[in-house]
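Consider the following assembly input.
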Amino acid sequence: MARILVADDASFMRQMIREIVEAEGHEVVGEASDGDEAVEEWKRLHPDVVTMDIVMPRRSGIDAVRGIIELDSSACVVMCSALGQETLVQEALQAGAKDFIVKPFKPDSVVSTLDKVLEKSD
Amino acid sequence: MDLAKYRAIFIEESTEHFAEMSQALLSLEKDPRCEEAIDVVFRMAHSVKGMAASLDYGPIEELAHTLEDRVQIARDAGAVGPPEELSLLFRGLAQLEAMMARVREGEDPPPAEPALLAELAALPEASASEAAAKPPPTAPRAQAGVKAPSATAAARTAPDLDAVRPPPTVRVNTQTLDRFLSTVGEVILNTSQVRTVSESEPGQRAGELSEGLDRMDRVVGELQRRALELRTTPLLRILEPLPRTARDVAERAGVRVSVELRGAELELDRSILDRLNDPLVHLLRNAVDHGVEDPAVRVAAGKDEVGLIVVQARREKDTIRISVSDDGAGIDLDAVRQRAIESGVVHPDLADDLSSEQIAAYVFEPGLSTAGQVSEISGRGVGMDAVRATLESLGGSVEIQSEAGRGTTTTLVVPITAAVQRVLMLGVGREKVALPIARVQRIEECKSESIERSGSDAFVLIEGELVPVLDLAARIAQPSASVEEVTHLVLTEVRGERVALSAERVAGQQQIYVKPVPELLRNVRALAGLTILGDGRPMFLIDPNQVA
């Protein structure tokens, strides 16, 4: 069971992810509502995986990925993107994100993506 | 997944997002290159899109998406294009808000206007000419420059623009809060019940008991004060949309205005706050529509072509005074005097002796506002008389001052809390009802035979003045007890007219905790609230404005 940090500026999305992953027995150890907070929380919690929204205030999700990867190049970050954000997703993957999930979230694909990246990082 | 839960979060978050978007668009009007503001509009549209998609609200998703794409162009360019571009974004936001209103009602959002979608999706260069082909929403020169509210106000609503984090807060559903307050109310009522019992049984330990009750009263009073504080909300909640309303009205009226908000951080009981919204919107519309002159007229009068409207709130003892001031032409007092004479409100001979303030006050008389002063707010015609009626039913008042050529200031005065009120209790049939003591001028005993009746109307002569008598029992459909020889008349003022309410008994004064009227009785407009008496029976609080 993984310890997950959920970063999204919309509490709507955070709750949705929480509900999906908790149903799978994972634990949401922290939430962040902007990029800065995501990096801070990562430092504090060292979660197994971070779900990271791309569009966030203060510091974008992509920038936050860079910040986290700088601290730990093996950190496991999964981007949350909307349709039409392919370029940004590419940029995030180049910055070190491991994978991405697409909004609106489908529980099955969220779970399988998380399983996939967790398996790899083991 | 519990969709209802997510729908509630969606409504709440989107509503906040729309407010932030509106705020950001207003600051873009001032500075089209404000990247932070462009970013806020973009993120808010993006976020609403994501939530709408998760809940299958296709039309909202589509419009938010189109809006997001449109703002992306501005984001890339580092500025929002010509004024038409901002108007288009404002229209997009207005449509999103309208869709959201439907979701709030539990319905599905209607599809977005295809024309609007097409305009948003078209290239910005093309949009101007396309817009020109349609009936223009505004006269070309009617661009309203609206100043963003003060820095503190902007910071409160758009925390993203503010580096300082607010202290941690907990979000509480208002229903939960009301239940909590209602329980505090029960404690107050129970305490007074215990005191009633203790007083009726004097004994050795009566002194101790009474001392204990005194201590308890103090603690309960403190609890009540704290609990009422919980229900207070910053005025910002209703002041914040005003600059945008002003902008819309100004566009239509072909004038230019700038709105300044002051004192928006002051807090008021939420139940009062909600009811102040319509009156404030009306005052603001009046200021823009009838106060501020055309730019050309203003320039000729040596004024800035942009009219200044200041909405200012300040605290004075237990009241909050919210004034709306414009620097426009002022009220045409001669016209008001003329209308007052024509409609018989004042005798022509007396009219000449009235001060300008007294004449200005006539705009609150029903039927004395000109048709143009009645604005449509949520489908109801709201005139100045309705503004006054609302304020009076809140236990407050309205004041107006006007100076020819210099402008008009209208001030709403409201009590800070309404949940606890001192009331006069009246016996009507087998029931007791309560009247807010603030509304009682005095009480007279009167022999039934001195009430003159003609048909269904009744009058009584008080100080040489014929005052209409309203039978409270009849008004609230209570069977009147046998015709009493003596009746009590409670003198009050309803919309400036003296009225006598007749009741069989006067049952004293009391401080009561006012609860909202149960859903089932909501359409009985005469009932302003409910309390539970010491003996466990309910007592209704009467709104005199609705009885007359």
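The longest strand of chain A covers residues 27-32. Ask yourself how this observation constrains the way the partners meet.
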